[in-house]
Amino acid sequence: MLTEIKSYWHELKIEYEKRYNKSFLSDFATSKEYLERMKSYLLEKQSEYPSDVDVVCTLAYVCVELRDEEFDYIEFLQDFLNEFEKSLRDNDKARIYTNLAFWEDFSKDSLMYFNKAKELNSPFVETYTGLGLYYFSEFEFSKDEKDLLISHNYFKIAREMNENYITSFNYAVSLFELKEYEKAKVIFLSLLEIYPDRMRLLLCLAYCEVYLGNKTKAISYVEKVKPGQDVNYDFNTDDISEDQIIDVYYALEEYDMFLNLCGDCVEYYYTAEWEEYFYVLWLKNQKEKFFSLKEKNRKYFEEAIEEAIADEDYESEKEKQETIASWEEDKRNFEEMIFSIKSGALIPEIKLKLYPEYSCFMVDCVRHKF
Q1: What is residue 217's predicted lDDT score, i.e. its pLDDT?
Q2: Integer CA distances (angstroms), 248 to 92, 209, 251, 255, in order
Q3: Measured in Å, how far apart are the chain's first and last C-alpha atoms?
Q4: Percent helix, strand, coil in the chain (nearest 5)?
Q5: Model confidence, pTM
Q6: How far apart are CA 277 and CA 289, in angstroms?
Q7: Which of 280, 282, 286, 253 is nearest to 343 (CA)?
Q8: What is the pLDDT of residues 2-50, one digit of tens each?
Q9: Secondary structure (DSSP) of 157-171
Q10: How far is the C-alpha of 81 from the C-alpha of 92, rounded, in Å?
């Protein structure tokens, strides 16, 4: 049935793109008519084959794309499971549970659905990719290496099931975070052969070389990295921020380049927490910039505190006092940081971090899978 459904979707897609000369689903207003036609088609199929999982999962996602506020994705699929649970195969249930897990967006219910799919020996790589992402997000919050190890093991399973860019990239990231830099580097290099000049891979390799102590190699990679969205690739991780590049030069103690790159950002970024920047300014004897930026931040905090005191738009006196106290704490922390740098007590350390590709892992996503 899925082949037939995809065929009809493809017909609609061709018709739409021929008519509007733009990608299907790129504009909701013009795509809506075609989504409605897809929904009608699927409802007809559902009346003929009420227990067909291909139909119901695709229908659920099409309803999401139609932005129907009354449609409840979770309730729709749960009702289907309740009605046909006895006749559904384990693979079908695992498929639905994986879709539900994605929709629950890394909540505890998400983990519940993932575990149900796993207990049914889910044959879908999306299940294990999702579990890897779930536990990596837990690791980001908890900093508990147990969560990272669990994430790593699920990313490994996903890659063994289907070795592609995302599964390999995620696995390599988990190796990097486990300080297995040489092993991570091997995978990033193999991906770079397939995806030449991919900015994210070049940055990942620079990070690996930093921790492997290969300064020249690290610089040779990071010099090629351009900030912003990679023009040739469009995953979430293909968008690189300036600070991710700047951090490499700080880690390598290339302080002149670090200051040069930071210079363009100082005017439009919040700098009160830039320990590394203030440290290098002081270290390189750029006292005028140091004190100028210090004064700018001091005024910023004082004005913020004054505004918080004068503001009358609070729901309670408690909220007002908490807001004022928060700004005052930020000001104290900033002043303590400046004092520590000037006294030589603070040499900020930096941790280069990599993140997996938090992309769609829904089994039945018409936007990404059709």
Answers
A1: 97
A2: 46, 10, 5, 10
A3: 14
A4: 70, 0, 30
A5: 0.87
A6: 10
A7: 282
A8: 888 998 888 888 888 888 898 888 889 998 898 999 999 899 999 898 9
A9: HHHHH--SHHHHHHH
A10: 10
* SS3 at position 240: strand
**Rounded average pLDDT over 317-334:** 94
Structure tokens at 182: 């040489």
Query: Which 3 state secondary structure label does DSSP give 351?
Result: coil
**Of 194, 150, 156, whose CA–CA distance to 172 is shortest?**
156
Residues 221-250: b if buried by 16+ CB within 10 A, e if exposed:
bbeebeeeebeebebebbebeeebbbbbbb
- The residue type found at 25 is L
All residues at 6 or more sequence positions from 39 whose CB lies less than 8 Å from its CB, including other chains: 59, 62, 63, 66
Q: CA triplet 112, 131, 52: central angle to 5 degrees?
A: 65
Q: What is the pLDDT of residues 212-226, one digit of tens each?
A: 999 999 999 999 999
* CA–CA distance, 127 with 114 (Å, rounded to integer): 6
Structure-block tokens of residue 135: 């536990």
Task: Please write the tens of the pLDDT for every residue from 276-294.
Answer: 999 999 999 999 999 999 9
Round to whole Å and give the CA distance between 243 and 240: 9
